Every structure is written in structure tokens, then in C-alpha cells.
Amino acid sequence: MRAKAFIGIAMFLVLISYSSAQSQQRPFSNPHPVPPPVAQDQRGTDQQPLSVKIVPAEKTDAERDDEQKHRDNEAKLSASAEQLARFAYGLFLVGIAQLLLFAVQLWFIGASFRDARKAAEAAKLNADALIDAERGRIFVNIEQDTADAIRSAARHANSPEKDGNPLDGSVGLFYGLKNYGKTPAIIRELGHQLVLAPELATEREHSPKTPLPIESVLGPGEQTPRGTLVCSFDRKITIGEGKEILALRNALWFYGYVAYDDTFGFGRELRYVFRYDGGTGGRFRLHSFQELQSQKRDEDEKSTVTVAADEPRAIPDAVPNKEDSPPVSASVSSPEQTISDNETRS
Predict the structure, then answer these.
(1) 238 DSSP β-pair partners
(2) Confidence at residue 136, expressed as pLDDT on a 0 to 100 scale
(3) Least confident stretch, 44-48, 78-82, 242-246, 318-322
């Protein structure tokens, strides 16, 4: 009996020891666990607003027909817009082609204008050449001079006391005008002068001879009657002045002008200068000349003046040799203006 009681106590102690060990190995658990807190529903608040999905109602046949018509219209509009774009592009290409064609036309027009201008210039040159070849040309011929008295001054070279005495004869010359052209020339006015000076002034004034001492019309190849045009020195030359002329320290200058019209309607003017001294071979020699062309008579006086200078085809007894021919110069002037030119001493 005692043994049974002892075994029972021992088993009880063993059970207590095992229970104590299990309790130390795992934590204490509440036989009634506390449920976790339930999250608050946020729907319908600012953080999670509600969304409503509207389910469309089923369309009727009329609505479906309207939608189909709308889609067809949009397709037609799209096709029309595409066609319009292609048409606009075509117009753009046509415009570019027209611009190119216009540029080509401008080039051809410019070329035709250039050709026309060249043709007009060539025609004008031909007309000018024809006028120049056929027009009247007046020039001066020295017929006779009375300068023998100057040559006689050489006899008194060793008599300085006679330098103040006048020479025996007067000094002057006869000259004529000849038309070397192929058509008549109509003389409007003329003037001349004989002066004594070492150098001729570049600005000279003289009055025209009125009335004309000759006939106003000179036909082709005609010349004024011999002895009708006379120019004399206004006083007698002294022996001393004659010595200076022969020694090239002084000179006699015969200058003048002839204003005339040709049959082509142009006004022309011949200006000439002759010189006499000890180096001219005992006669008057051509020093320089100019021929000027004015505007047409039927044009306004304010129109541009055209200048022409050319040498006559033949000047008998006026230019004895080639080196005596002066260079031709020209300037704009009219017969009424002061005669002013730049001569080159021959």
C-alpha cells in the first residue's frame, strides 16, 4: 500500500516537472485572442471618392442609322479634304510652271529688246554715216594775201632806228568758202578777224558780217566768187613789228567762223585759225579748225546739242603738208556764243 502511494507521488512530481519545462519553451498564449482592429471603410471620402459607371442603354435602330450616316459623312469629308489637298498641290505646281514660263518670256523679251536696240543703233549709225557722207561741207581757202610788206621788213634788219616807222603797204588777205560736200549748204552768218599777237587768246569775240557779202547757198563743189571776202589789218604794221614776225617773236592771226545749215536739217559751224610768221613759208598757214553740229532746227532749243568734228576731204592750198594739219577738237557751242576753243600751235 505504501509502495503504491510512493509510485503515485513520484508520477505526480514527474508530471509537474514536464509541465514546467514546456511552459518555459513557448510563450504564454491567451486562450482567448483579441481580434485585430477592423480598417475603416474610406469609400465615399475625399481620399477615395466613389466612381459611377453608367451603362448605356441599348440603342434603337434610328440611333444606329444616325451613327452610320455620321460615319459616312465623316468619311466623305475626309475624302473631299484629301482631294482638295491634291488639287491645291496641283495648283502650286501650275504656279511654279507659270513663274518659270514668265521668267523665260522675260528673258526672250529682254533679248528681243536688246536685238531691237542694237538694230536701232546700227540703223542710226548707218543714217549718220549716210548724212556725213552726203551732207554739205564748207571750208576756207586763202586766195591771196598782201603780206609782202612784212617780208620787206627784212631789208631793215640793221636799221633799228627805223623800227617805229610803218611799212609801206597794208596787210590783209582775200579768202573764199568752198562746199566740199555732195549736197548744198545754206550759209547763215560768218565773221573774221586779223590780229597781231605772240599767242592767240583762247576767248575771242567778234561780230558777224551783216549783210552777208556772198550768196547764202553754196551748191556741191561750188565756191564763193574770188575776191569777195576780204579781211584787213586795222592799221599799218611797223618795221619793228615786221622784224618780230619774221623772227618768230610775234605773229599775225587770221581767225573766224562760218555758220551754215545742211539739207538734212542740222545746223553746223566751222571755226578756223590761220597763222602767219617767219616759219610759215611767207604765207598764212592753217593752225587749227573745228566743226560743230547743233541740234536740228525743228527741235526745241533746250534739246541736247550733238557735237561733231571732222576734217574736210580736200583743202587745196590750205594744208600744204601733213605735219601742218592740226588735231581736230570739238566743243559744245552755238553760233551766237562766244568763240572759244583750244588751238594747238602747229
Answers:
(1) 166
(2) 92
(3) 318-322
| CA 65 to chain CA centroid, nearest Å | 77
Three state DSSP letters for the chain: CHHHHHHHHHHHHHHHHHHHHHHHHCCCCCCCCCCCCCCCCCECCCCECCCCCCCCCCCCHHHHHHHHHHHHHHHHHHHHHHHHHHHHHHHHHHHHHHHHHHHHHHHHHHHHHHHHHHHHHHHHHHHHHHHHHHCCCEEEEEEEECCHHHHHHHHHCCCHHHCCCECCCCCEEEEEEEECCCCCEEEEEEEEEEEECCCCCCEECCCCCCCCCCCCEECCCCECCCCCEEEECCCCCEHHHHHHHHCCCCCEEEEEEEEEEECCCEEEEEEEEEEECCCCCCCCEEEEEEEEEEEECCCCCCCCCCCCCCCCCCCCCCCCCHHHCCCCCCCCCCCCCCEECCCCCC
- Residues 150-176 pLDDT 10s: 888 888 878 888 888 888 888 899 999
State the sign of the Cα–Cα–Cα–Cα dihedral 174, 180, 186, 187: negative
pLDDT number for residue 340: 37
Q: Positive or negative, the Cα torsion across 328, 331, 337, 342?
A: negative
Q: How far is CA 172 from the centre of its chain?
A: 52
Q: What pLDDT does 303 receive?
A: 35
Cα angle at 197 between 205 and 153, to 5 degrees? 135
How far apart are alpha carbons 256 and 57 in whole angstroms?
123
pTM: 0.55
Say if residue 198 is preceded by a cis peptide, omega within 30 of 0: no
Distance CA 197, CA 344 (A): 15
Q: Name the residue among 273, 255, 285, 275 with its Cα closest to residue 191.
A: 255
What CA–CA distance (Å, rounded) separates 305 from 293? 7
